[in-house]
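Standup notes
- DV: blocked on the single-chain target, sequence here:
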Amino acid sequence: MTLTFEDFPQGHFGSFGPQHVTREEIVGFAAEFDPQPMHLDEEAARASMLNGLSGSGWHLCSLMMRMLFDGFIGGTASLGSPGVNEVRWISPLRPGDDLMLDVEVVEARVSRSRPATGIVTFKCVVRNAAGETLCEMISPIIVERREGRGG
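- DV (later): unblocked, structure below
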């Protein structure tokens, strides 16, 4: 069954994960996309304000997107997103972290310009196994309405 706009009432939507993160994944992502010393080198990372090797915030966002897709977006009548309203990196992503993603629908409204669609705004919170919040994101997606899909 494909999820449509009507399947996203305000409130807690779901929890997804865990997603395990290895040192090799952190360093590999950083080497290709964000080669700052705190993401690549243990000694440099210990000397940084992060006090140890940490994953790039962009790596964390990529992992969150994967968890969102696997969790529900892959089965949603999503037409894409107009952008991200807010991303906050709160605590570092560390090697060995097991990530959990909590998703809340903060707003769901029918589009004024395209009434066959709705705009669903999600607040996504990634935590590690200790319950520390690592990242928060607020982002809308455009979703087909059931009546726009022919029933």
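- Follow-up: The two ends are 13 Å apart (CA to CA).
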